[in-house]
């Protein structure tokens, strides 16, 4: 079973039924990827598959996803609100940028909040645990080892507590003692897990400091699985290593959480965008590359076109007045004319959630294609599509 789902040809053939521009998520592709991830991660026996909301925070889509994954990880109070409306039964959270009162609200509503730094934990404790009542808490740890990848941060990360620094370790010990805390959750997120050696080095570091946290029940290894899953040789031995590690060093462990975002959504999303005008070989579309995909532009391609015209070199541009708002420059495609449309892929992750609004241009409507129907996913919707 391949990680890559088949292109939804039936959806392409019916894409004239929805207005343009539109982002469409294919439900069959989403469930295909989730099933594949569960199978490959299955060697980690206590594995829980979450999804990272920062990749896509559409409420209706998350309502659908809440039925096919075990939980969701959020990085803001706003994402937490989406997760609640969407109906996720399990929510984890970590960020240095969440107000203390919002952290308290999350914890009171059974969110596993993993504190990002010592000052955040102390501020919360002073405001909401003045009585020093014993509590179970979680921590995000910084992994201060050298990085072997541009998007693997480790020692370069600005997030998490570096307990190898004596000052941090001493302050943390004092807070845990003073406020009667027991650390039951450890959260790391280092960007891309990258390869087997990255995971091995990270786990070896954790071995050295886990004596500080003898009560750990949850280990959240974050997301960043995309590059790892591109290396077939590394996949199985990496997860076998994680399983071996947890059995040997975490006797009280109840779950190991993975929370990919890009890997779950990226291959399930498509953009339908139509031609507004053509000028000297430049095709002006009704959506903006600059507003939508500046971060992921290099990977996007045309997978369907309504045009049956001859092949021609054209520049396909977005609908802003920014000179560099270009989808494709001088590329060969079926000649596009007024009202023709194309479908672009991949468009599921970090597009709408990271979109800009130059000129006040709204983001495209979003749809879930399920059971051969397009279901509009409005921003405030919480209905789960069966």
Automatic annotation (TrEMBL):
InterPro entries: Ala_racemase/Decarboxylase_C, De-COase2_N, Orn/DAP/Arg_de-COase, PLP-binding_barrel. It holds the Pfam family Orn_Arg_deC_N. Keywords: Pyridoxal phosphate. Gene3D superfamilies: Alanine racemase, Lyase, Ornithine Decarboxylase, Chain A, domain 1. Residues 32-262 form the Orn/DAP/Arg decarboxylase 2 N-terminal domain. Its cofactor is pyridoxal 5'-phosphate. The keyword Lyase does not apply. This is Orn/DAP/Arg decarboxylase 2 N-terminal domain-containing protein.
């Amino acid at each position: 079973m391949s990680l890559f789902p088949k292109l939804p040809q039936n959806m392409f053939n019916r894409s004239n039924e929805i207005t343009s521009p539109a982002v469409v998520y294919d439900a069959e592709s989403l469930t295909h990827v989730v099933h594949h991830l569960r199978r490959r991660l299955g060697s980690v026996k206590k594995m829980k598959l979450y999804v990272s909301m920062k990749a896509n925070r559409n409420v209706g889509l998350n309502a659908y996803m809440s039925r096919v994954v075990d939980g969701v990880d959020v990085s803001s109070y706003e994402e937490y609100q989406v997760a609640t409306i969407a109906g996720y039964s399990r929510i984890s959270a970590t960020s240095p940028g969440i107000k203390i009162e919002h952290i308290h609200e999350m914890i009171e509503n059974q969110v596993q909040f993993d504190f990002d730094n010592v000052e955040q934990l102390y501020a919360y404790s002073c405001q909401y645990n003045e009585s020093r009542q014993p509590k179970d808490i979680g921590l995000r740890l910084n992994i201060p080892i050298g990085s072997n990848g541009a998007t693997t941060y480790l020692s370069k990360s600005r997030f998490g507590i570096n307990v190898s620094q004596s000052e941090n370790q001493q302050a943390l010990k004092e807070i845990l003692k003073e406020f009667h805390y027991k650390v039951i959750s450890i959260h790391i997120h280092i960007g891309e897990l990258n390869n087997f050696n990255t995971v091995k080095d990270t786990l070896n570091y954790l071995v050295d400091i886990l004596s500080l946290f003898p009560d750990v029940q949850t280990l959240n290894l974050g997301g960043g699985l995309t590059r790892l899953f591109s290396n077939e040789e590394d996949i199985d031995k990496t997860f076998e290593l994680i399983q071996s590690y947890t059995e040997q060093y975490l006797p009280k462990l109840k779950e190991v959480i993975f929370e990919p975002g890009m890997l779950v959504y990226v291959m399930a999303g498509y953009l339908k965008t139509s031609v507004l005008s053509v000028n000297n070989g430049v095709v002006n579309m009704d959506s903006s590359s600059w507003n939508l995909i500046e971060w992921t532009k290099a990977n996007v391609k045309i997978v369907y076109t309504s045009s049956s015209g001859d092949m021609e070199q054209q520049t396909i541009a977005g609908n802003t007045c920014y000179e560099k708002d270009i989808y494709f420059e001088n590329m060969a495609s079926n000649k596009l004319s007024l009202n023709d449309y194309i479908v672009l892929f991949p468009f599921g992750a970090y597009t709408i959630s990271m979109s800009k609004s130059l000129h006040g241009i709204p983001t495209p409507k979003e749809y879930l294609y399920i059971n051969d129907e397009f279901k509009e996913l409005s921003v405030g919707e919480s209905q789960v599509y069966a």
